Amino acid sequence: MKKGENEMKKVVIYQSGTGFTEKYAGWIAERLGCEAKEYKSVKQKELTDYDMVIYGGWIFGGMVFGYDKIKELNLKNVIVFGVGMTAPSEAVAAKIAEQNQIPRDRFYYYEGGYAPQKVGFMKKMMMNMIKKSLEKKENKTADELHTLENFKGADNTSKEAIEELVARCLKQ
Ligand SMILES: Cc1cc2nc3c(=O)[nH]c(=O)nc-3n(C[C@H](O)[C@H](O)[C@H](O)COP(=O)(O)O)c2cc1C
User: Fold this and answer.
1) 90-128, pLDDT tens digit by residue?
2) pLDDT at 31
3) From CA 110, how far away is CA 159, in angstroms rounded?
4) Alpha-helix runs per DSSP H in 5-141
5) 3 state SS of 82
6) Domain 7-115+155-171: CATH architecture, name and number where available
7) Which end of the chain has the smaller Cβ count within 10 Å, N or C?
8) What's the whole-model pTM score?
9) Three-state SS for 89?
10) Residue 6 pLDDT exceeds 90
11) Which helix (H) or strand (E) is 164 found in, with range?
């Protein structure tokens, strides 16, 4: 019997520091009719039971947090989404996909936000350094000005943004 849409076992696995990635993971799982599980709560071996793993990680210095561990598992069908505070664009998504060695057609970038009240001391120091270097930059683009605004604290999550990923996952 050919595997139909409903028989394909899917799961959303995520790592979220301050909740934005978790929010996207919940939205995606709801649309796909599957579970969203925090990476820490699953055994790596368990992930091989699924036909499709949708992995979401927050962006930390250009890296999709935790994706290195997922890559090591060599799963057959992995779709990745990264959540950062940079305004979304094809250029940003392509750069992150390349840096993390994710096939471009399997990666989606979403804008999260910034929750300074939930970020630890060391990470906040790193963020202040990034902010300072951006402030010093001449002729800032609209996207860079937008990112600077986000340092004050922002939630720019968008439920509509997940549509392309959802459609693609439902098709398989
Ligand atoms: C230490 C640190 C480094 C970050 N580096 C980036 C980055 O390189 N690019 C980006 O777009 N966002 C970066 N961010 C912003 C987070 O990715 C953003 O706040 C994201 O929405 C957090 O998602 P979470 O709530 O799931 O943790 C960084 C945040 C911190 C604290």
Assistant:
1) 999 999 999 999 999 999 999 999 999 999 999 999 999
2) 98
3) 10
4) 20-32, 67-72, 90-99, 121-136
5) strand
6) 3-Layer(aba) Sandwich (3.40)
7) N
8) 0.95
9) coil
10) no
11) helix 163-171
Residue minimizing CA distance to atom 7 of ligand 1: 61
Structure tokens at 16: 């979220």
Site to substitute for ligand 1 among 55, 60, 108, most atoms within 8 A of C-beta: 60
Q: How far is the CA of 131 from the centre of ligand 1 (A)?
A: 12
Which atom of ligand 1 is found nearest the CA of 150? 19
DSSP 6: G
Residue tagged 């599980």 (tokens): 37
DSSP 8-state code for residue 8: S
> Residues 102, 67: contact at Cβ < 8 Å?
yes
Name the residue type at position 18. T
Name residues whose C-beta falls within 8 Å of residue 143's C-beta, 6 or more positions apart in sequence.
86, 87, 89
Cα gap 91→88, rounded to integer Å: 8
Task: Decide if 162 contacts 110 (C-beta within 8 A).
Answer: yes
